[in-house]
Design goal:
Blueprint: E1 27-30, E2 38-45, E3 48-65, E4 70-74, E5 76-83, E6 92-100, E7 106-114, E8 123-129, E9 133-135, E10 138-140, E11 143-148, E12 152-153, E13 158-163, E14 170-174, E15 179-180, E16 185-189, E17 217-220, E18 232-237, E19 243-250, H1 260-271, E20 289-290, E21 300-302, E22 315-317
Parallel strand pairs: 16-17, 19-20
Antiparallel strand pairs: 1-7, 2-3, 3-5, 3-6, 4-5, 6-7, 8-11, 8-21, 9-10, 11-16, 12-15, 13-14, 13-18, 18-19, 21-22
Length: about 325
Amino acid sequence: MKNYLLLLGALIMFGSCTTPDAASSPKKTSGSSQTLTFQKCRAISDDQIEFDFSRPVTIKSLVFFPDLPVASVENGGTVKVTLEGKTEPGKLITVDLLAEDEKRNTINVLVSFRTRNNRMPSLVINEICTEYANAAAGKKAEFIEFKMMSDGNLGAMRVVIIGNTSAAKETIYEFSSADVKQGDYVVLHLRTYDPASVDEYGADTLISGGMNSSSARDFWIPGESKLIHKTSMVYVLDQDDKVLSAVMISEKADSWWTKDYFAETAAFLFANNAWKSAQGEAPGPADAFISAGTTNTRTICRDESAENTNTASDWYITATSSATPGTANNTKRYSN
């Protein structure tokens, strides 16, 4: 049944569709002084969404934006909503709902989430450019390239950079739905200088006209803030916070372990089998790949011919003028 049929009586919906990065915004509307709280929502399958509350509730109204036809609603401390059909992987949805507990406390919740992606691909971070260029032909942004190791869909995949910036510990980009094939390259450009730099979510991978656009899928982070440095940790998360790929880089091995979150992130990556020392132990400062010497044209590249060991030995700096966003890495190595 259509979700608007869940509206009951004279109950009034509060608020409107939120922006893509909006967090939940519950609002108590009536009832006793005992607090009823909304905790979280999650897509548990491609046709079911759960909403957690501090105690059992009955849903009085429920509206999705864009519209998702609802088949059934199971009330309780965890409200389970079953949809009439399967959703597109990783699609951004906003829900506006009104819930009531047995004491007639009501709460209005406005929250955004991404639909379930059961087709997350296996992938590796394959090339990293930590420096931008201000050339005569135009500005070239830093980038991260991914190589797909299986077929899948990028929806809800998140990219995180930990570094010496105010953006430390933040998700810098979350992908919407885009099908990929094994062997495909995907390039995430870390700034946008040119309005012709458009995200390539459709079938045409040649529509982006920004500097360093490739023949592969190109995606662009809005704004011109610097998000990556020669001392950074980069990793990719799926919808369940599993680390799909990671790399630790440092300009100097003896000087980068200066902030607690570096050590915390290194421990997190080791616990998720995403990065380790050459001896297979928890990584320390000496276990990062040394990025000194990298430029906009000398990028940090994965050795695509070697087995992935999740250590610094997987990586090298390619020779001058050998950056290859969107294609196989140049095997010629930089020698200082």
